Amino acid sequence: MRLTLFVGEASAATDAAVATLRRLVEDQPDAFELRIIDVHRQPEAAERHRVIATPTLIRELPPPVRRIIGDLSRHERVRVALDLTADLAENLTRGTQDPSPDPDPEA
């Protein structure tokens, strides 16, 4: 899963967002690619992704793209917003994205 967190100036909201995402990634480090982008240092990245408020978290992969804007301090709410169910997380760790069973090759 590819996640990009856009942050602005240092604040409690920024610190909470970073802490929540680091905790999420620590739960399953092989399942995530996390980038943290400071919009003041990389304004072109914020513009390219149409970020107008911080913190903004974008789940780029797997599709569909999801955006979470604002309070990211609650770990479980972020998991739900990212649609990170236990089945999806397990499949991401194994390197697949489709939690459905393989089709029967005999059919």
UniProtKB/TrEMBL annotation:
Domain of life: Bacteria
Record-linked SUPFAM superfamilies: Thioredoxin-like
Transmembrane segments: none
InterPro entries to which the protein is assigned, alphabetical: KaiB-like (IPR039022), KaiB_domain (IPR011649), Thioredoxin-like_sf (IPR036249)
GO terms, biological process: rhythmic process
Residues annotated as domain KaiB: 4-84
Protein name per the record: Putative circadian clock protein KaiB
Upper taxonomic lineage: Bacteria, Pseudomonadati, Planctomycetota, Phycisphaerae, Phycisphaerales
